[in-house]
Amino acid sequence: MATEIKVPALGESVTEGTIAEWLKQPGDAVAADEPIASLETDKVAVDVPSPVAGVLTEHRAAVGDTVEVGAVIALIAEGAAAGAGAPKAEAAPAPAAAAAPAAPKADVATTAAASAELLTPAQTMSPAVRRAVLEYGVDPSTIKGTGKDGRLTKEDVIAAAQARAKSAPAPAASPAPVPAAPPTGPHAAAAGRNTERVRMTRMRQTIAKRLKAAQDNAAMLTTFNDCDMSAVIAAREKYKDLFAKKHDIRLGFMGFFAKAACLALKDVPAVNAYIEGDEIVYHDYVDISVAVSAPNGLVVPVVRDADKKGFAEIEREIADFGARAKAGTLTMEDMAGGTFTISNGGVFGSLMSTPIINPPQSAVLGLHRIEERPVVRDGQIVIRPMMYLALSYDHRLIDGREAVTALKIIKEAIEDPTRILIDL
Protein backbone atom coordinates (compact mmCIF):
# COMPACT_ATOMS: atom_id res chain seq x y z
CA MET A 1 0.00 0.00 0.00
CA ALA A 2 1.37 3.38 -1.01
CA THR A 3 1.36 6.16 1.56
CA GLU A 4 1.27 9.79 0.42
CA ILE A 5 3.84 12.16 1.94
CA LYS A 6 2.38 15.62 2.26
CA VAL A 7 3.88 19.02 3.05
CA PRO A 8 3.33 19.54 6.79
CA ALA A 9 2.12 22.74 8.44
CA LEU A 10 4.98 25.22 8.24
CA GLY A 11 3.97 27.78 10.84
CA GLU A 12 1.65 30.71 11.21
CA SER A 13 1.03 32.62 7.95
CA VAL A 14 3.40 30.32 6.00
CA THR A 15 1.48 28.54 3.23
CA GLU A 16 4.22 27.20 0.98
CA GLY A 17 7.85 26.18 0.77
CA THR A 18 10.49 25.17 -1.74
CA ILE A 19 12.01 21.71 -2.13
CA ALA A 20 15.62 22.42 -1.16
CA GLU A 21 16.92 18.85 -1.16
CA TRP A 22 15.72 15.27 -1.42
CA LEU A 23 17.30 13.31 1.44
CA LYS A 24 15.94 10.03 0.08
CA GLN A 25 15.80 8.81 -3.50
CA PRO A 26 13.33 6.38 -5.12
CA GLY A 27 14.29 2.87 -4.03
CA ASP A 28 15.74 3.95 -0.69
CA ALA A 29 14.51 2.31 2.49
CA VAL A 30 12.88 4.75 4.89
CA ALA A 31 12.26 4.35 8.62
CA ALA A 32 9.25 5.83 10.37
CA ASP A 33 9.80 9.51 11.24
CA GLU A 34 12.99 9.61 9.13
CA PRO A 35 13.34 12.83 7.08
CA ILE A 36 13.00 12.28 3.35
CA ALA A 37 13.17 15.89 2.14
CA SER A 38 14.24 19.35 3.24
CA LEU A 39 11.85 22.25 2.63
CA GLU A 40 13.01 25.84 2.62
CA THR A 41 10.50 28.39 3.87
CA ASP A 42 10.75 32.15 4.21
CA LYS A 43 12.57 31.80 7.53
CA VAL A 44 13.80 28.27 8.24
CA ALA A 45 14.53 24.90 6.66
CA VAL A 46 12.04 22.20 7.64
CA ASP A 47 12.55 18.46 7.32
CA VAL A 48 9.64 16.40 6.00
CA PRO A 49 9.50 13.08 7.90
CA SER A 50 7.97 9.83 6.70
CA PRO A 51 4.99 8.75 8.82
CA VAL A 52 5.61 5.07 8.01
CA ALA A 53 8.47 2.65 7.35
CA GLY A 54 8.89 1.37 3.83
CA VAL A 55 10.53 2.21 0.52
CA LEU A 56 10.35 5.55 -1.26
CA THR A 57 8.81 4.81 -4.66
CA GLU A 58 8.24 8.21 -6.24
CA HIS A 59 9.03 11.91 -6.06
CA ARG A 60 6.07 14.11 -6.95
CA ALA A 61 8.12 17.34 -6.95
CA ALA A 62 11.63 18.30 -8.02
CA VAL A 63 14.31 20.27 -6.22
CA GLY A 64 13.46 23.96 -6.58
CA ASP A 65 9.70 23.41 -6.93
CA THR A 66 7.38 25.51 -4.78
CA VAL A 67 4.85 23.35 -2.94
CA GLU A 68 1.88 24.33 -0.78
CA VAL A 69 1.03 23.00 2.65
CA GLY A 70 -0.86 19.72 2.21
CA ALA A 71 0.51 18.99 -1.27
CA VAL A 72 1.65 15.41 -2.00
CA ILE A 73 5.38 15.39 -2.71
CA ALA A 74 6.26 11.67 -2.53
CA LEU A 75 4.90 8.13 -2.24
CA ILE A 76 6.18 5.40 0.07
CA ALA A 77 5.44 1.69 -0.27
CA GLU A 78 4.54 0.93 3.32
CA GLY A 79 6.28 -2.08 4.86
CA ALA A 80 8.12 -2.96 1.65
CA ALA A 81 11.58 -4.46 1.88
CA ALA A 82 14.52 -2.19 1.31
CA GLY A 83 15.34 -3.86 -1.98
CA ALA A 84 11.80 -3.66 -3.35
CA GLY A 85 12.17 -0.21 -4.79
CA ALA A 86 14.09 1.04 -7.77
CA PRO A 87 16.87 -1.25 -8.99
CA LYS A 88 20.29 -0.51 -7.53
CA ALA A 89 23.48 -0.35 -9.52
CA GLU A 90 25.13 -3.10 -7.50
CA ALA A 91 22.45 -5.54 -8.66
CA ALA A 92 23.54 -5.20 -12.29
CA PRO A 93 25.04 -8.35 -13.88
CA ALA A 94 28.82 -8.60 -14.10
CA PRO A 95 30.25 -7.73 -17.51
CA ALA A 96 31.19 -10.60 -19.81
CA ALA A 97 34.83 -11.62 -19.88
CA ALA A 98 34.98 -10.95 -23.58
CA ALA A 99 33.66 -7.43 -23.27
CA ALA A 100 35.06 -4.89 -25.66
CA PRO A 101 37.91 -2.67 -24.48
CA ALA A 102 36.85 0.33 -22.44
CA ALA A 103 35.80 3.25 -24.54
CA PRO A 104 37.62 6.58 -24.29
CA LYS A 105 36.72 8.88 -21.43
CA ALA A 106 32.93 9.23 -21.26
CA ASP A 107 31.05 12.44 -21.55
CA VAL A 108 31.05 14.34 -18.25
CA ALA A 109 27.27 14.40 -17.97
CA THR A 110 27.02 10.69 -18.78
CA THR A 111 29.63 9.86 -16.14
CA ALA A 112 27.85 11.89 -13.48
CA ALA A 113 24.45 10.48 -14.38
CA ALA A 114 25.73 6.92 -14.21
CA SER A 115 27.51 7.53 -10.93
CA ALA A 116 24.35 8.97 -9.40
CA GLU A 117 22.84 5.45 -9.53
CA LEU A 118 25.51 4.28 -7.08
CA LEU A 119 24.61 6.79 -4.39
CA THR A 120 23.94 5.56 -0.89
CA PRO A 121 21.53 7.54 1.32
CA ALA A 122 24.46 9.27 3.02
CA GLN A 123 25.63 10.51 -0.39
CA THR A 124 22.41 12.26 -1.36
CA MET A 125 23.53 15.33 -3.24
CA SER A 126 22.35 18.90 -2.86
CA PRO A 127 21.82 20.94 -6.05
CA ALA A 128 25.22 22.64 -5.69
CA VAL A 129 27.00 19.30 -5.26
CA ARG A 130 25.11 17.78 -8.18
CA ARG A 131 26.21 20.66 -10.40
CA ALA A 132 29.81 20.14 -9.31
CA VAL A 133 29.58 16.40 -10.10
CA LEU A 134 28.28 17.21 -13.58
CA GLU A 135 30.94 19.87 -14.11
CA TYR A 136 33.92 17.79 -13.00
CA GLY A 137 32.68 14.37 -14.12
CA VAL A 138 33.67 12.55 -10.91
CA ASP A 139 32.14 9.41 -9.43
CA PRO A 140 30.51 10.51 -6.13
CA SER A 141 30.44 6.93 -4.83
CA THR A 142 34.24 7.02 -4.57
CA ILE A 143 34.36 10.23 -2.52
CA LYS A 144 34.20 10.36 1.25
CA GLY A 145 31.77 13.09 2.29
CA THR A 146 32.75 15.55 5.01
CA GLY A 147 29.32 17.18 5.41
CA LYS A 148 26.56 16.48 7.90
CA ASP A 149 25.78 12.74 8.17
CA GLY A 150 28.58 11.99 5.72
CA ARG A 151 27.00 13.91 2.84
CA LEU A 152 29.12 15.23 0.01
CA THR A 153 29.96 18.91 -0.18
CA LYS A 154 30.97 20.94 -3.20
CA GLU A 155 34.48 21.18 -1.74
CA ASP A 156 34.68 17.36 -1.54
CA VAL A 157 33.88 17.07 -5.25
CA ILE A 158 36.39 19.76 -6.26
CA ALA A 159 39.13 18.18 -4.11
CA ALA A 160 38.46 14.76 -5.68
CA ALA A 161 38.60 16.26 -9.18
CA GLN A 162 41.90 17.98 -8.41
CA ALA A 163 43.37 14.77 -6.97
CA ARG A 164 42.31 12.85 -10.07
CA ALA A 165 43.87 15.46 -12.33
CA LYS A 166 47.21 15.21 -10.48
CA SER A 167 47.30 11.42 -10.71
CA ALA A 168 46.17 11.16 -14.33
CA PRO A 169 48.91 10.22 -16.88
CA ALA A 170 50.07 12.89 -19.27
CA PRO A 171 48.06 12.80 -22.52
CA ALA A 172 49.74 11.62 -25.71
CA ALA A 173 51.11 14.30 -28.00
CA SER A 174 48.64 15.48 -30.58
CA PRO A 175 48.70 18.04 -33.35
CA ALA A 176 48.51 21.57 -32.08
CA PRO A 177 44.96 22.87 -32.35
CA VAL A 178 44.21 25.71 -34.65
CA PRO A 179 43.89 28.80 -32.43
CA ALA A 180 40.40 30.14 -32.22
CA ALA A 181 39.58 33.63 -33.31
CA PRO A 182 39.94 36.11 -30.45
CA PRO A 183 36.64 37.14 -28.88
CA THR A 184 35.16 40.43 -29.89
CA GLY A 185 32.49 42.69 -28.50
CA PRO A 186 31.91 44.14 -25.03
CA HIS A 187 32.90 40.90 -23.27
CA ALA A 188 36.22 40.43 -25.05
CA ALA A 189 38.22 41.43 -21.95
CA ALA A 190 36.45 38.75 -19.92
CA ALA A 191 37.67 35.84 -22.06
CA GLY A 192 38.83 32.94 -19.90
CA ARG A 193 36.99 34.15 -16.81
CA ASN A 194 34.00 32.23 -15.49
CA THR A 195 30.81 33.27 -13.76
CA GLU A 196 28.29 31.21 -11.86
CA ARG A 197 24.59 31.92 -11.78
CA VAL A 198 22.91 30.54 -8.66
CA ARG A 199 19.24 30.85 -7.83
CA MET A 200 18.57 32.83 -4.65
CA THR A 201 17.37 30.71 -1.79
CA ARG A 202 13.85 31.31 -0.60
CA MET A 203 15.20 32.75 2.66
CA ARG A 204 17.48 35.17 0.83
CA GLN A 205 14.58 36.29 -1.39
CA THR A 206 12.46 36.91 1.71
CA ILE A 207 15.26 38.83 3.44
CA ALA A 208 15.66 41.01 0.35
CA LYS A 209 11.92 41.72 0.12
CA ARG A 210 11.50 42.48 3.83
CA LEU A 211 14.50 44.80 4.03
CA LYS A 212 13.45 46.67 0.91
CA ALA A 213 9.88 46.91 2.22
CA ALA A 214 11.22 48.35 5.49
CA GLN A 215 13.01 51.08 3.55
CA ASP A 216 9.97 51.77 1.37
CA ASN A 217 7.32 51.78 4.11
CA ALA A 218 9.09 53.30 7.13
CA ALA A 219 10.52 56.78 7.61
CA MET A 220 13.84 55.45 8.87
CA LEU A 221 16.37 57.54 10.70
CA THR A 222 19.42 56.56 12.78
CA THR A 223 20.79 58.24 15.88
CA PHE A 224 24.28 57.45 17.24
CA ASN A 225 26.09 57.56 20.53
CA ASP A 226 29.28 56.09 21.93
CA CYS A 227 29.61 54.01 25.04
CA ASP A 228 32.45 53.43 27.49
CA MET A 229 32.58 49.66 28.03
CA SER A 230 35.01 49.81 30.98
CA ALA A 231 32.42 49.01 33.68
CA VAL A 232 30.85 46.07 31.82
CA ILE A 233 34.26 44.63 30.94
CA ALA A 234 35.35 44.93 34.58
CA ALA A 235 32.14 43.28 35.81
CA ARG A 236 32.52 40.39 33.36
CA GLU A 237 36.14 39.89 34.33
CA LYS A 238 35.30 39.90 38.03
CA TYR A 239 32.31 37.55 37.93
CA LYS A 240 32.73 35.44 34.77
CA ASP A 241 34.11 32.37 36.60
CA LEU A 242 31.48 32.43 39.34
CA PHE A 243 28.73 33.07 36.79
CA ALA A 244 29.83 30.16 34.59
CA LYS A 245 30.17 27.85 37.60
CA LYS A 246 26.69 28.65 38.93
CA HIS A 247 24.75 28.91 35.66
CA ASP A 248 26.84 26.77 33.30
CA ILE A 249 26.85 29.52 30.69
CA ARG A 250 29.33 32.21 29.73
CA LEU A 251 28.57 35.78 30.77
CA GLY A 252 28.56 37.81 27.57
CA PHE A 253 27.79 41.38 26.53
CA MET A 254 24.35 40.63 25.07
CA GLY A 255 22.82 40.06 28.49
CA PHE A 256 23.88 43.55 29.58
CA PHE A 257 22.54 45.19 26.42
CA ALA A 258 19.28 43.23 26.54
CA LYS A 259 18.61 44.34 30.12
CA ALA A 260 19.68 47.92 29.33
CA ALA A 261 17.29 47.92 26.34
CA CYS A 262 14.47 46.74 28.62
CA LEU A 263 15.01 49.80 30.82
CA ALA A 264 14.88 52.10 27.80
CA LEU A 265 11.79 50.46 26.30
CA LYS A 266 9.88 50.72 29.58
CA ASP A 267 10.73 54.42 29.88
CA VAL A 268 10.06 55.17 26.19
CA PRO A 269 7.14 52.90 25.19
CA ALA A 270 7.00 54.14 21.58
CA VAL A 271 10.32 52.42 20.84
CA ASN A 272 8.69 49.12 21.86
CA ALA A 273 5.54 49.71 19.77
CA TYR A 274 4.61 49.43 16.12
CA ILE A 275 2.11 50.85 13.65
CA GLU A 276 -0.80 48.70 12.50
CA GLY A 277 -3.02 50.49 10.01
CA ASP A 278 -4.11 53.73 11.63
CA GLU A 279 -3.35 52.50 15.15
CA ILE A 280 -0.28 52.29 17.38
CA VAL A 281 0.14 48.96 19.17
CA TYR A 282 1.92 49.34 22.53
CA HIS A 283 3.31 46.36 24.46
CA ASP A 284 3.60 45.96 28.23
CA TYR A 285 6.24 43.27 27.70
CA VAL A 286 9.60 43.17 25.91
CA ASP A 287 10.28 40.42 23.37
CA ILE A 288 13.77 41.03 21.99
CA SER A 289 14.65 39.69 18.55
CA VAL A 290 18.35 38.83 18.40
CA ALA A 291 19.93 38.92 14.94
CA VAL A 292 21.87 35.68 14.40
CA SER A 293 23.95 34.71 11.38
CA ALA A 294 22.91 31.35 9.90
CA PRO A 295 24.36 29.48 6.90
CA ASN A 296 21.47 30.58 4.66
CA GLY A 297 21.15 34.14 5.90
CA LEU A 298 20.24 36.33 8.85
CA VAL A 299 17.58 35.06 11.24
CA VAL A 300 16.04 36.77 14.28
CA PRO A 301 14.91 34.36 17.02
CA VAL A 302 13.08 35.99 19.93
CA VAL A 303 13.97 36.13 23.63
CA ARG A 304 10.47 36.42 25.08
CA ASP A 305 9.72 38.42 28.22
CA ALA A 306 13.33 39.59 28.39
CA ASP A 307 12.28 42.22 30.93
CA LYS A 308 11.30 39.44 33.36
CA LYS A 309 14.37 37.24 32.84
CA GLY A 310 17.77 37.33 34.49
CA PHE A 311 21.17 37.48 32.83
CA ALA A 312 21.63 33.71 32.92
CA GLU A 313 18.32 32.97 31.19
CA ILE A 314 18.98 35.55 28.48
CA GLU A 315 22.55 34.39 27.84
CA ARG A 316 21.43 30.74 27.76
CA GLU A 317 18.67 31.42 25.24
CA ILE A 318 20.94 33.48 22.98
CA ALA A 319 23.64 30.78 23.04
CA ASP A 320 21.04 28.15 22.22
CA PHE A 321 19.70 30.23 19.33
CA GLY A 322 23.21 30.64 17.91
CA ALA A 323 23.91 26.90 18.05
CA ARG A 324 20.59 25.98 16.50
CA ALA A 325 20.94 28.62 13.79
CA LYS A 326 24.23 27.04 12.68
CA ALA A 327 22.66 23.57 12.79
CA GLY A 328 19.59 24.77 10.89
CA THR A 329 17.16 23.59 13.59
CA LEU A 330 15.43 26.87 14.48
CA THR A 331 11.64 26.71 14.16
CA MET A 332 9.09 29.22 12.95
CA GLU A 333 7.90 29.61 16.55
CA ASP A 334 11.41 30.68 17.59
CA MET A 335 11.19 33.70 15.28
CA ALA A 336 7.55 34.67 15.57
CA GLY A 337 6.80 38.03 17.15
CA GLY A 338 9.39 40.32 18.67
CA THR A 339 8.93 43.95 19.71
CA PHE A 340 12.52 45.23 19.40
CA THR A 341 15.71 43.95 17.75
CA ILE A 342 19.38 43.94 18.76
CA SER A 343 21.95 43.32 16.02
CA ASN A 344 25.61 42.87 16.92
CA GLY A 345 27.78 43.65 13.91
CA GLY A 346 30.77 44.06 16.18
CA VAL A 347 31.42 40.31 16.19
CA PHE A 348 32.33 40.69 12.50
CA GLY A 349 34.47 43.79 13.08
CA SER A 350 31.99 46.53 12.18
CA LEU A 351 32.91 49.97 13.56
CA MET A 352 29.65 51.73 12.71
CA SER A 353 26.48 50.99 10.74
CA THR A 354 22.87 52.07 10.22
CA PRO A 355 20.84 48.89 10.90
CA ILE A 356 17.50 48.40 9.15
CA ILE A 357 14.42 47.89 11.31
CA ASN A 358 12.71 44.49 11.36
CA PRO A 359 9.05 45.08 10.34
CA PRO A 360 6.58 45.51 11.94
CA GLN A 361 8.91 46.66 14.72
CA SER A 362 9.80 50.33 14.92
CA ALA A 363 13.39 50.28 16.18
CA VAL A 364 16.61 48.27 16.14
CA LEU A 365 19.77 48.68 18.23
CA GLY A 366 23.07 48.16 16.43
CA LEU A 367 26.15 47.14 18.42
CA HIS A 368 29.69 47.44 17.06
CA ARG A 369 33.24 46.46 17.83
CA ILE A 370 35.01 47.61 20.97
CA GLU A 371 38.22 49.51 20.40
CA GLU A 372 40.45 51.60 22.60
CA ARG A 373 40.18 55.31 21.85
CA PRO A 374 41.35 58.52 23.56
CA VAL A 375 38.54 60.25 25.46
CA VAL A 376 38.41 63.09 27.95
CA ARG A 377 37.62 62.24 31.57
CA ASP A 378 37.84 64.91 34.31
CA GLY A 379 39.84 67.15 32.01
CA GLN A 380 42.37 64.42 31.21
CA ILE A 381 42.86 62.48 27.98
CA VAL A 382 42.65 58.78 28.81
CA ILE A 383 42.32 55.56 26.84
CA ARG A 384 39.00 53.74 27.17
CA PRO A 385 37.38 50.71 25.44
CA MET A 386 34.67 52.43 23.42
CA MET A 387 31.78 51.15 21.32
CA TYR A 388 29.56 53.05 18.89
CA LEU A 389 25.83 52.43 19.39
CA ALA A 390 23.26 53.02 16.65
CA LEU A 391 19.49 53.15 17.03
CA SER A 392 17.52 53.09 13.78
CA TYR A 393 13.86 53.96 14.20
CA ASP A 394 10.64 54.66 12.32
CA HIS A 395 10.20 58.42 12.47
CA ARG A 396 6.47 58.06 11.73
CA LEU A 397 6.02 56.75 15.27
CA ILE A 398 9.15 57.72 17.22
CA ASP A 399 10.25 61.33 17.52
CA GLY A 400 13.92 62.26 17.63
CA ARG A 401 13.66 63.21 21.30
CA GLU A 402 12.32 59.77 22.18
CA ALA A 403 14.94 57.93 20.10
CA VAL A 404 17.82 59.93 21.55
CA THR A 405 16.46 59.47 25.07
CA ALA A 406 16.15 55.70 24.65
CA LEU A 407 19.69 55.38 23.32
CA LYS A 408 21.00 57.58 26.13
CA ILE A 409 19.35 55.32 28.72
CA ILE A 410 21.03 52.28 27.16
CA LYS A 411 24.39 54.07 27.16
CA GLU A 412 24.09 55.11 30.81
CA ALA A 413 23.04 51.62 31.91
CA ILE A 414 26.06 50.06 30.18
CA GLU A 415 28.48 52.64 31.59
CA ASP A 416 27.01 52.12 35.07
CA PRO A 417 25.52 48.59 35.26
CA THR A 418 24.23 49.26 38.78
CA ARG A 419 21.37 51.13 37.07
CA ILE A 420 20.18 47.78 35.66
CA LEU A 421 19.99 46.27 39.15
CA ILE A 422 18.06 49.15 40.71
CA ASP A 423 15.87 49.83 37.63
CA LEU A 424 17.12 53.36 37.13
Structural class: alpha+beta
Largest sheet: 7 strands, mixed
Give the strand tally.
19
Report the sheet-strand fraction: 15-25%
Report the principal-axis shape.
Answer: globular
Number of helices: 10
CATH topology call of the largest domain: Chloramphenicol Acetyltransferase
Q: Radius of gyration, Cα only, in angstroms?
A: 28 Å
Total number of domains: 3
CATH A-level architecture of the largest domain = 2-Layer Sandwich
Helix content: 25-40%
SSE pattern, N- to C-terminal: EEEEEEEEHHHHEHHEEEEEEHHEEEEHH
How widely separated are the two ends?
A: 67 Å
Residue stretches low in confidence (pLDDT < 50, at least 5 long) are 82-123
Mean pLDDT: 80
Kindly describe this structure.
By secondary structure, the chain is α+β, with helices and mostly antiparallel strands. It folds into three domains: 1-86, RNA polymerase II/Efflux pump adaptor protein, barrel-sandwich hybrid domain (OB fold (Dihydrolipoamide Acetyltransferase, E2P), Beta Barrel); 103-165, E3-binding domain (Dihydrolipoamide Transferase, Irregular); 215-421, 2-Layer Sandwich (Chloramphenicol Acetyltransferase), CATH 3.30.559.10. The protein contains ten helices and 19 strands. It has helices at 108-116, 127-136, 154-167, 202-217, 230-247, 253-267, 311-327, 332-335, 400-415, 418-421; strands at residues 2-6, 16-22, 29-30, 35-40, 45-49, 54-59, 66-68, 72-78, 220-228, 274-276, 279-281, 288-290, 292-294, 297-299, 302-303, 340-344, 363-367, 371-377, 380-394. Strands 9, 12, 15, 16, 17, 18 and 19 form a seven-stranded mixed beta sheet that branches. Strands 1-8-6-3 form a four-stranded antiparallel beta sheet, with no helix packed on it. β13 (292-294) and β14 (297-299) form a beta hairpin. α2 runs parallel beside α3 (154-167), α6 crosses α7 (311-327) and α6 crosses α9. The N and C termini lie far apart (67 Å). 30% of the residues are buried. The model is unreliable at 82-123 (pLDDT under 50).
